[in-house]
Structure formats: C-alpha cells, structure tokens
Write a structure and sequence with these properties.
The protein is α/β, with parallel strands linked by helices. Helix 1 crosses helix 7, helix 3 runs parallel beside helix 4 and helix 4 runs parallel beside helix 5. The radius of gyration is 17 Å and the shape is globular. The two termini are 28 Å apart.
C-alpha cells in the first residue's frame, strides 16, 4: 500500500473549478501534485504557488496524444512518475438548460468535441502512463463522470453521451489494467455549487436540485474532491471498475 503522501498525482483540467479542488485535496494530504491546464495558465500558476513547492503546472491539450506524452515525461522528471491520474478535463461547456442543444438542433460535432476530451483524453493518458504503471506494478486512474447518465434531469445530450462513453471505457480499462496492479474508477457528480461550467445555471435550479436530495443541499467541488481521494487511497485497493455517484443522494446508484 502506498499512502497518499508518497504519491505523485496528475490532475487534468486542474487550473480552476473542480480540478482545482481535487488538486487542493491531494496537496492537503501531502501528495506531489501536477496541475494540468490547457488555457488557464494564470489560474494554474496561482494555484501551484498557493499549494506549495510539491506542486507544479504542466500545459497540455489532452486531446493531443503527443502533448500528453510530453506532459507525463515532464511530470516524471519534475515530481516523479505519476502513480495517480485524475482525468477531470472538460471541453468548453456551460450548463444552461435554456441554451442547450435539443435533439433537433444537435449535430455530431458537438458530441464529438465532448467525447474527444473525455474518451480521447483518457486514451491518451493511458497510452502515456501504462508503461510506468507496468514497471511499478501499481497505478490509480480516476475519471470524472456525471449523474446525468443515470438521471438526465436536464437533457444535455452531447455532454451526457460523452460521459456515458467515458463510464464504459472506465470499466473496460479496469478489466484490462487490473493485472498490472492498476485500479480504474469513476466519481460522478451532479450540479456543483459553483464552478465556471455551472455558473450559467439559474439560482432557482440550484434550489430545486437541493430540495430533491436527501441532504437538502447541492454538493460542492470540495466534497466531490474528497471522494476522489478515496479511490487513490490504500482503503480502495480492492475496488475497481466502479462508479461512485456523489450528489447528496439525488441519484441512488
């Protein structure tokens, strides 16, 4: 068992929002944290400075295999080989039910853009990290999903389709990577209060969601980040191929 304080963690899309909260959670536990960003350089640098000298920033577009491979090499040199990868990166998206694509307006390129980041990004990360994990006989891969797959209370077709595909790949990857000592799991959130993506959501929707949960509140990024820690920790060493829904009980999975 490897405690979190001895692990190197790479979080994609960690410059802001949920990714930043995940980076903060691992740093709090003493891990070395690689903060990946695509465009949010200023936010990523500010986060790294705040979290201390066991963190560093790394620019890469996860849809580009070469950039991901270069990033993993750079993380290995700077912080050590990443034992944990959290695939959080999200293609540009705003959760605004009034402005969403309906089935009549939806076109494949919107679905493709989401899937390229979620599924394509995961593939690129696996290709880059698998040799390291095979050498160490250990690895933790955690993907970020959505409870909309189980309960499409608002039909965000493109986003939800990509997360459904990501869940499928998470499970098939768990089956193939398990013999290498690698676990692969997903943490699925609902509406989070509040990230850049959910900033377009009207306050009334937050109130409706809160009223439908047993806990009577909307989950925060920090609360979801703590669930991610579990899958990376020694306590989850026998758990793989699972999808943990963290939404205050809105979805019973």
């Amino acid at each position: 068992m490897i405690p979190l304080s001895e692990q190197t963690v790479l979080v994609t899309g960690a410059g802001r929002g949920l990714g930043a909260s995940i980076a903060e959670a691992f740093a709090r536990e003493g891990a070395r944290v690689a903060i990946n960003f695509r465009k949010s350089e200023a936010e990523a640098q500010a986060l790294a400075e705040r979290l201390g000298d066991r963190t560093a920033t790394f620019q890469a577009d996860v849809t580009r295999d070469g950039e991901v491979a270069t990033m993993v090499d750079a993380v290995t040199v700077r912080l050590g080989p990443p034992t944990v990868i959290v695939h959080n990166a999200l293609a540009d998206y705003a959760f605004n039910g009034d402005a969403r694509d309906t089935l009549e307006s939806l076109r494949w390129d919107a679905v493709e853009a989401q899937t390229k980041t979620s599924v394509g990004g995961l593939l690129a990360l696996i290709h880059a990290a698998r040799p390291l994990w095979a050498e160490q006989g250990f690895g933790r891969l955690i993907t970020i999903g959505s409870n909309l797959v189980q309960n499409p209370v608002v039909p965000y077709h493109d986003y939800t389709a990509s997360k459904g595909a990501l869940l499928a790949l998470t499970r098939t990857a768990a089956a193939e990577l398990g013999p290498l000592g690698v676990t692969v799991n997903m943490v699925s959130g609902g509406l989070l209060r509040t990230t850049d993506a959910s900033a377009a959501t009207p306050e009334a929707v937050f109130d409706i969601i809160a009223g439908q949960t047993p806990l009577r509140r909307v989950t925060t990024p920090a609360e979801m980040a703590d669930a991610v820690l579990f899958f990376a920790s020694p306590w989850a060493r026998a758990v793989t191929g699972q999808n943990l829904v963290v939404d205050g009980g809105l979805v019973f999975n």
